[in-house]
Design brief:
Helix content: 10-25%
Number of helices: 2
Order of helices and strands: HEEEEEEEEEEEEEH
Mean pLDDT: 83
Strand content: over 45%
Radius of gyration: 22 Å
Low-confidence stretches: 7-23
Shape: globular
Largest sheet: 7 strands, antiparallel
Oligomer: single chain
Number of domains: 2
Structural class: alpha+beta
Distance between the termini: 21 Å
Length: 219
């Protein structure tokens, strides 16, 4: 029985690792540095960045999806949501190599280049609902839209130093604040799926083991 369980658990772990680190991924997130690497290879096209905040019960989530592009141009869509008593204002990041331009901006957030977040300093790319990236107007509970990043240099390209901005934080008397990436304790949906498959395999192996035991007793 123990041997069967070990084999099933090892198989599930390998399957989860394969999902978490695709060999040729178009979009990958380094959970140590929180840098997102983009290229035009086949593979995963979506990453999720979780942000903390100045208060313990407020977080946000930015989902970036690479939808197309050629050469130095990368087309993205995003959904930006929060959990907690506050509103969102915007998010930003730096890029390497540098951005040549940002085009095809859709959705309620406007693009600002080489601007300042009040607590984080200069940010190369900022998407914000207000008049600038220090403003708190234009806030909402969620945002979605798209943009095209046009890079200088050659692939792969990296987005890093992510930051987001909150407004009307209830625990801070409706003041504004910023958040930075952190590793969520909740597994990604793909990991949940592979875990469930692994547990299903364990259950199947145990049932077969019991059935084989009954057959031996009959014989």
């Amino acid at each position: 029985m123990r041997r069967v369980l070990r084999i099933a658990l090892a198989t599930a772990a390998l399957n989860i690792a394969a999902i978490a680190t695709p060999a040729n991924a178009a979009l990958t997130l380094d959970t140590d540095t929180f840098a997102v690497t983009a290229d035009h290879n086949a593979g995963s096209s979506q990453v999720t960045i979780n942000f903390d905040s100045p208060v313990s019960d407020l977080t946000s989530q930015l989902v970036l999806t690479l939808t197309g592009g050629t050469g130095n141009a990368f087309d993205f869509t995003y959904t930006f949501t929060k959990s907690g008593a506050a509103n969102l204002v915007g998010f930003g990041f730096d890029a390497s190599p540098d951005l040549a331009s940002v085009t095809n901006v859709t959705g309620p957030l406007a693009f600002f280049a080489n601007t300042t977040f009040p607590d984080s300093g200069n940010i190369e790319a900022c998407f914000n609902g207000g008049n600038n990236c220090s403003a708190a107007n234009g806030q909402a509970g969620s945002f979605s839209g798209g943009f095209t990043l046009n890079f200088t240099g050659s692939a792969p390209f990296t987005l890093n130093d992510f930051v987001d901005r909150y407004a009307s934080i209830a625990a801070l008397n409706n003041q504004s604040g910023e958040g930075h990436p952190f590793v969520s304790a909740v597994p990604e949906p793909a990991s949940w799926a592979m875990m469930l498959l692994g547990f299903g395999g364990i259950g199947t192996a145990m049932r077969r083991r019991r059935k084989d035991g009954r057959l031996l007793q009959i014989a």
